[in-house]
Design a protein that fits this description.
66% helix, two-stranded antiparallel sheet, 8 strands, alpha+beta, globular
Length: 489
């Protein structure tokens, strides 16, 4: 079976189990999950869906999220969308937005809705951040080694071009997310990076291009949305096409230049100073807390709200020192999953789930292991957090000792973060510290889970023969207890 056929088969298997095309309002995906807006949640066949080999878990939030893993989800989603489009009823699109809005209002708190909006602004930027970050790392390596001097300026341009204009993209996405005209949001945010602002004085200071960064761009675009709404309400329709965009850019631009850029610049500086102070004075403790608490944030889907902070640090310092610490949570999760595999030798269902989700976990994608292994078992999720805490404490300790370990981009973690590492300890030292943190996270997560992750009752419930694992040769029949239904993972 070709790859396209395989992805089409996965999509075709999922569609009837979520109620068919008539039950689908929206289809989207992130790095690991197929996100579906559903008309009627009761039509979903959860058990059958979880039993599909390609499905690593499901998550219920403002959308119904099916965990397929990195790479797979990006290929299955277009096939799924094509199946839905082929069978969609005529009024599906018109009714979908209202139903989705109703579900979001009923199932989400205002705080979570705000954080999701912030995430929706920055998540689309991650592919560019990753690509440019890796190119920046390659350029730094070649520069340090003195290789290909004719090529490194071109690599520097590729790596820096996006970051120089990231405020424009943030403004565009912000206006789009908050219901304004995206291009007007981008136009107002572009003021922040325009070189000519260096001729303007505000609050007794000369502005500098880029002052306020992504936070300033976000605030400017939100203001532009509200100015645009006011104009749409009061400007006569005959003049709307001329007056509304002009007033939106003029009013929002003036407030940005003579207010937001200064305020956002102070906030951005404070974020960078606080991160430096925290890791310099309490690096081990801060790393322990951050590494230990990150998995619950991932579980709740709130981890993406940290993206603006990471982006601000990258703008200021060239790398974010928080991401390598937070990445240790994934190391704890991997260690915990390995211990689960060892502790449940007779549960073929869970062991298959561990084997299928472990490669993604090693690359820093934790959702398959969270929702497919540790969280359903309970205690292993807590012990995975313990592993992440010790790994984060290890990396934080070196930051406290003066060896900063950072990432030039956001998105990847685990082994996938190695090409993006940067710091003041040199390439070898930075890689060694991060690798040491991973090993500490793996080992602590494994040990904590092996010795403290299972109660007697939990072992009795899950260490039972389920669907037998495939073996090279047929094994003789056992005289043990009869097979039970697969554990719910």
């Amino acid at each position: 079976m070709s790859t396209d056929d395989k992805n089409r088969a996965i999509a075709a298997a999922i569609l009837p189990l979520v109620g068919g095309a008539r039950n689908i309002d929206s289809v989207a995906h992130c790095m690991t999950r197929l996100r579906l807006g559903l008309r009627d949640r009761s039509l979903v066949q959860d058990q059958a869906l979880r039993a599909l080999p390609a499905v690593l878990g499901v998550v219920e939030d403002d959308t119904y999220q099916i965990v397929l893993g990195p790479g797979t989800v990006a290929r299955v989603t277009p096939e799924f969308e094509a199946l839905v489009a082929a069978a969609a009823v005529p009024d599906l699109a018109s009714r979908g937005a209202a139903i989705k809005a109703s579900q979001r209002e009923r199932n989400a708190t205002p705080f979570k809705l705000f954080l999701r909006r912030i995430a929706n602004i920055f998540v689309p930027l991650i592919p560019a951040l990753i690509g440019c970050g890796i190119i920046a790392g390659l350029n730094g390596l070649l520069t340090n080694l003195g290789l290909l001097p004719a090529v490194t300026p071109a690599l520097a341009a590729m790596a820096s071009g996006f970051m120089a204009l990231i405020a424009v993209f943030v403004g565009y996405n912000t206006a789009k997310e908050f219901g304004g005209t995206p291009i007007l949001g981008g136009a107002v945010a572009a003021i922040i990076v325009f070189p000519g602002v260096a001729k303007i004085d505000a609050f007794g200071q000369t502005l500098s291009p880029g002052q306020g960064g992504v936070l300033g761009a976000l605030g400017a675009a939100v203001l532009a949305v509200y100015v645009e709404r006011w104009c749409r309400r009061w400007v006569p329709e005959a003049l709307d096409v001329l007056v509304t965009p002009t007033l939106t850019v003029l009013v929002s631009g003036l407030v940005t230049l003579f207010g937001l850029m200064f305020v956002a610049g102070e906030v951005s500086t404070a974020i960078g100073d606080f991160a430096d102070w925290l890791l310099a004075h309490a690096g081990a403790g801060a790393g322990f807390v951050l590494g230990g608490l990150f998995l619950p944030l991932v579980m709740l889907g709130l981890h993406q709200a940290l993206i603006p902070i990471h982006t601000t640090l990258i703008e200021q310092q060239g790398f974010t020192v928080l991401l390598p610490i937070l990445a240790m949570a994934g190391a704890g999760q991997v260690g915990a999953a390995m211990a689960v595999y060892v502790k449940l030798p007779r549960n073929g269902s869970i062991r298959r789930t561990v084997r299928s989700a472990l490669p993604a976990g090693l690359l820093g994608v934790g959702e398959p292991l969270i929702y497919g292994v540790s969280l359903p078992l309970g205690r292993p999720f807590v012990t995975a957090c313990v592993g992440g805490a010790f790994g984060g404490g290890f990396v934080g300790l070196f930051n406290m000792l003066g060896d900063k370990v950072g990432s030039t981009a956001i998105g990847p973690s685990g082994w996938a973060l190695f090409p993006l590492l940067d710091g003041n300890a040199g390439v070898g030292g930075t890689i060694a510290i991060y690798a040491g943190g991973l090993l500490v996270g793996y080992a602590t997560g494994f040990v904590a889970t092996y010795f403290f992750g299972f109660s007697r009752a939990l072992l009795e419930e899950f260490d039972v023969e389920t669907e037998p694992e495939p073996k090279p040769e047929a094994a003789p029949a056992t005289t043990g207890p009869p097979a039970q239904e697969p554990a719910k993972v």
